[in-house]
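Input (structure):
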């Protein structure tokens, strides 16, 4: 039975005691009347900002209106990034002992239901998932959707895998809004590059968990007959470029001999192949998987190691433990080996930084 049916909501009780209508409280608190009605009916959990506004208007504390946990929530709940200005769906996850709200965006291979809706600074939670059972990963692995599906099937947790370049992923890890950041700067010539990058950007106290090795190279239109990487570097005039700080952009800059100023920036391997397939770019650097799945030609440039970075203190977290078990499982390693350009020879190995 809902709270609205069993007893009067404290907001309604205090509003009526002052002789105010819902419209009057709406004006005084600066929140929509529909939201006031939904709060009083127990259908809507207000955001921290809205809860404070209603409490100020009624001259009482947030705790008196919404319970003992609301004031603590006011300090512990925040948007991880990009809070919507109007209406927007979100997911919830606990990272670093704090509950973060993540605006819903398209995740590779995922159809996760949102945890709530933010509308006019009001939170309407569906209550469908425990925030402490969500692992948040930022990285550019185009097979992350497959990993998320396996992770959910093999554990009691879910994986939110946001598409971000390696540099951006490490920044989010440093900010404490994701659990895991993926990077792939290590090559056969420089096998310790991932560890060096983490040490340079974040310092010590981290772990690197090997996800896979993969081939990175140049995606070309299917009808293009350029035979070598060197020829591509000389002949291509319009590149689909990744953002600065990504390993793919670094690879392209190395090929061209200097950094280029892009007219447009591609934020994922998949975006690179779509630009090439769509015809506005002649070529772009990406992983073999994306190029082959898009029916493009692929010229390999180098083999890279894709590592998942997380704080050492998270190693015993059940969500990370579930990820480690999955990557070390025979079934997952077999599946990774079947992906074009991927190699699971060292998948599941872990080193300290």
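Output (sequence):
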């Amino acid at each position: 039975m809902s709270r609205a049916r069993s007893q009067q909501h404290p907001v309604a009780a205090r509003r009526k005691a002052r002789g105010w209508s819902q419209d009057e409280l709406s004006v005084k608190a600066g929140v929509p009347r529909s939201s006031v009605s939904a709060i009083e009916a127990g259908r809507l959990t207000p955001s921290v900002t809205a809860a404070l506004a209603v409490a100020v208007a009624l001259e009482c504390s947030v705790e008196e209106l919404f319970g003992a946990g609301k004031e603590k929530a006011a300090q512990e709940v925040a948007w991880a990034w990009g809070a919507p200005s109007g209406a927007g769906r979100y997911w919830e996850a606990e990272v670093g002992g704090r509950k973060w709200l993540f605006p819903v965006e398209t995740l590779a291979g995922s159809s996760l239901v949102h945890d709530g809706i933010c509308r006019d600074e009001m939170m309407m939670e569906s209550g469908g998932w425990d925030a402490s059972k969500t692992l948040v990963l930022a990285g550019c692995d185009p097979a992350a959707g497959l990993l998320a599906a396996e992770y959910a099937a093999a554990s009691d947790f879910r994986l939110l895998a946001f598409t971000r370049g390696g540099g951006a992923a490490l920044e989010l890890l440093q900010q404490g809004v994701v659990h895991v950041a993926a990077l792939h700067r290590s090559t056969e010539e420089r096998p310790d590059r991932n560890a060096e990058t983490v040490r340079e950007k974040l310092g010590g106290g981290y772990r690197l968990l090997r996800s896979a090795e993969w081939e990175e190279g140049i995606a070309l239109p299917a009808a293009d007959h350029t035979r070598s990487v060197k020829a591509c570097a000389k002949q291509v005039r319009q590149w689909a470029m990744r953002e600065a700080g990504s390993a793919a952009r670094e690879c392209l800059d190395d090929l061209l001999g200097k950094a280029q100023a892009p007219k447009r920036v591609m934020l994922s391997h998949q975006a690179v192949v779509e630009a090439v397939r769509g015809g506005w770019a002649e070529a772009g650097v990406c992983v073999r998987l994306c190029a082959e799945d898009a029916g493009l030609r692929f010229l390999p440039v180098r083999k890279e190691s894709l590592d998942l970075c997380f704080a050492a203190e998270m190693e015993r977290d059940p969500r990370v433990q579930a990820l480690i078990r999955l990557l070390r499982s025979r079934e997952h390693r077999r599946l990774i080996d079947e992906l074009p350009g991927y190699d699971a020879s060292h998948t599941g190995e872990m080193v300290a930084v």
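Notes: Residues 144-154 form the longest helix (11 residues). The two ends are 52 Å apart (CA to CA).
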